[in-house]
Amino acid sequence: MYARRAAQLLQELSSCEEGQLPPYNGDKFDQVIRECEEHSRQFQSLIRDKDIETKNEDHYGSFIHHLSIIRNKRCLMAYMYKRAEVIQSYRWNVGRVLPREIQDKLNFSEQEYFKDYCGVIDSYMKDLDLDLTVDMVPPKDPYIRVRVLSEIGEVSLGDHAVSLTKDSFHFLRRTDAEPFISQVLLHSIILMLNFECVIIF
Amino acid sequence: MPGYYDISDILMEDEAVSVAFHVGANGVGLLDPGTETNSVEKGAKIDLPFWLAHELCRRRAVSITIPSCFGQKMKKDVQADAACVDLGTRYPYFYEFGCKLFPLVGDKSIGLFLRHTFANRYKEMLSKSHTASLNAIPKFVLRLSKEEYQLFEAARSSMVEFKKWRVRDLGLMKTTIVGHKRKTDLH
Hints:
The complex is a heterodimer.
Chain A: H1 4-14, H2 26-47, H3 57-93, H4 100-103, H5 108-128, E1 143-148, E2 153-157, E3 160-164, E4 169-173, H6 174-182, E5 186-188, H7 193-200
Antiparallel strand pairs in A: 1-4, 1-5, 2-3
Helix pairs in contact in A: 1-3, 2-3, 3-5
Chain B: H1 7-12, E1 16-21, E2 25-26, E3 39-40, E4 45-49, H2 50-58, E5 62-64, H3 72-80, H4 87-90, H5 94-105, H6 109-131, H7 146-166
Helix pairs in contact in B: 5-6, 6-7
């Protein structure tokens, strides 16, 4: 009672690392809502047939119940809000499809929220005709050296076709290579730049 | 100013303060573990969470006693050595709590005390944050309050960025042409 459980819920959330979520604690959430109902019942019983202006013991008691409800509401809202923020960040950091272990931590309405958010972003990007999720870190170089991890075959990129056979190296424009890199079909080896020159050439 | 959804503000307001009731209150017996009836007597001394005490104090229903974290013992500890005082485990929301408590209690010395504590701890914290490595968590970090910890992290990450910048790639021209060296045909 008196918002202690709600505070525990928030403790759980804040003890997680930045950008991570604990599993959705539906039980505690429901318990807090039941506590609010209890407070509301007590409040009703204290103000029944009483003159609101007189500041007697019932008045202060009902006031305390009222404050508890408001406090519980604030805790629950903050809980949902923080989780929604993290879910939004998943679209930008992880991608359109969430891995199993993240999906298990969300409840049903949060999964729906994620789908709707992806839909909104996609329709916005379609209107702009621009993919906003590539190049989240500004690139130093328009070109990137890549190594093919699994057989892709002939791919036409812009004006020329490139044959992406397994374990072959290519030097591609970054925007062309990004979709393949995000699907883990190409491996960016930009960090091994100096090494590369020695091995290949 | 912290917002409605700010989780650390919400958790800070959960700190317990000891209050003395000026009025009785019915139907809230759970607040006072010692009471037999379902109500709080006038004059009772109870520990309430700060969010509740704050609102009741504004309506003059209770008066808040200064908690131990701003009491004489704490002041003596800070006088002796501010940097060794363990705020991280005992009072993680020391500064924010003090700032919110200060207008309610009417003790003008709390504000000066907060500033004095912070100023003395800051010097040591600054030097340690610049020299601390990224992986190891120095023991003294556990003694920092939440606000100090945020400053510490900010200083540490800016130091890391600075070191990265210092050893960055300097002026290597990356070739844009890949492939075998072209032999120019002179004939």
